[in-house]
Structures are given as C-alpha cells and as structure tokens.
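Q: What does the assembly look like in three dimensions?
Context provided by user:
Components: four
Sequences:
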Amino acid sequence: MKKTKREKLEAAGWAVGSVKEFLGLSEADTVLIEMKLALSRSLRDRRKKYGLSQVQLAERLHSSQSRVAKMEAGDPSVSMDLLVSSLLLLGASSADLADAIRGAEKRTGPRAA
Amino acid sequence: MKKTKREKLEAAGWAVGSVKEFLGLSEADTVLIEMKLALSRSLRDRRKKYGLSQVQLAERLHSSQSRVAKMEAGDPSVSMDLLVSSLLLLGASSADLADAIRGAEKRTGPRAA
DNA sequence: GAACTATATGTCACATCAGACATATAGTCA
DNA sequence: TGACTATATGTCTGATGTGACATATAGTTC
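A: Here is the predicted structure of the complete assembly.
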C-alpha cells in the first residue's frame, strides 16, 4: 500500500528531496510555529506603533488583555486565525501579512537555507 | 468573534467582492475570508499538481476526504491553521504561502497560486 | 513604603474546529 | 443498465481555542 502511494507520488513529479516533506511532519510543524511567531512579533510592533496598551488593543478586538499577551507571547493556545484577524483589525493589509510570513522559514541553526 | 452564517453564505456564493457590500462585512472579515479562499485554491492546485485524489491527500494529512473537500471549498469550519499546515505538508514553503496570501485583497475572480 | 500602570500566567466554561462516518452527486466505462 | 471513482454535504463526538477572570510580576511616581 505505502509503496504504491509513494510510487504514484514520484511518478507525479515529486523531486526526490522533496518527498520528505510528506514524511517530515515535525518540519511542517516547525515552519507553522515560525509563521505564528512572525505574526506575533508583527502584532506587537503594530500595537506599539499605534501607542496602544494591551488593554486598549483588547478592547478594540473585543477580547481580553490576557489573550493579547498570549498572542504576543506566541502561546500555543493562540490560533493563526486569531493572529491574522487581529492584525487585520489593526490595519494590516494582506500584503503586510505576506511580508511577515515570507521570512518565517524554518531555521535549524545559525544559517538559513 | 462573530462569523459562521455570513461565512457560510459567502463561501457558497463565490462572488466575494460584491458579497461584502451585500452582507455588510467589515473590511477585516472580508480580507480574512479572501485569504482563506486563496489558500484553499492553492491547496487544490497543489494537490492536482501532484496528481493526488482527495482521499490520497487525506491519508497523507492523517485526515479524511470530507475535510479535504471542505478545505478546498472554503468551508467556514476550516481554520487557517489547518489550511496552512496542510499546505506545508504538501511541500509549500513560507514564501509560497506569502505569495498566495499577498494577492488576497480585492479579488473578484479565481487565480492560481 | 503605597498606589498606579503595563504585562504575564494559570485556569475554566463555553464555543468552535477536528476527524470520522454516512450519504449524495457526478462522471466514466464496460 | 450497473459498477466504479472522485468529490460534495450533513452530522456526530472528542479535541482545541476563546474570552474572561484572578493573580503575579515589573516598572513608575509620589
């Protein structure tokens, strides 16, 4: 079964080195976390840029100070949806979000691939 | 966090740019939906590019065919986290995701990612 | 020191999302 | 026709995210 699936994959055009993307679940997880952290930093930067406290931002988001703190801390209980919608409510454009996300590739050491 | 029925209508409609005014969606809500739709399209494109069925993709994501269908349909029950992590498992890079997201504003027709 | 502000952390009830399953629809082919 | 494949849709239950609250920590001003 698995052999068949893999054969189909490679026959469909997967580069040999890229097939590991399917198997490397933890690698995808890492990139996802990096993306969230990038959005977290972007949120904090944007909040400070407008001179808002976490409480003031929470009011604007109809949320709470503790959740804003967790958003900025990259807490696992914060979803990407919440981060993105919060950034949008702070005036970010989709291009701004794209910029924040673009550099979030996984980093395994001092050098980035 | 108010959504659900609006998103359901919108996801079913596909005339996103005009639905915003029809339903009176906020700009942030609209952009978030557009971003999710952009990721949905990107997921479908990527799956087809590798010649996978929804069932085959579901197996690799450790998910189900119905959820893959909902992801690609832009169903409101699908989170951005799920879309992004699925794309990452399909080999997308953070730069790929940035590209998909960047054009998600003021879009009125389909486009490949 | 007290009082005040800003941020962080832990917990909880409730809402939302997840995978799974059944089933419906649509297209293909013998 | 019927069998087969791919995709879509509805719903259930367990898992996860959310806002709210209490409380802790840190810095500032008096």
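Follow-up: Residues 81 and 87 of chain A are 10 Å apart (CA to CA).
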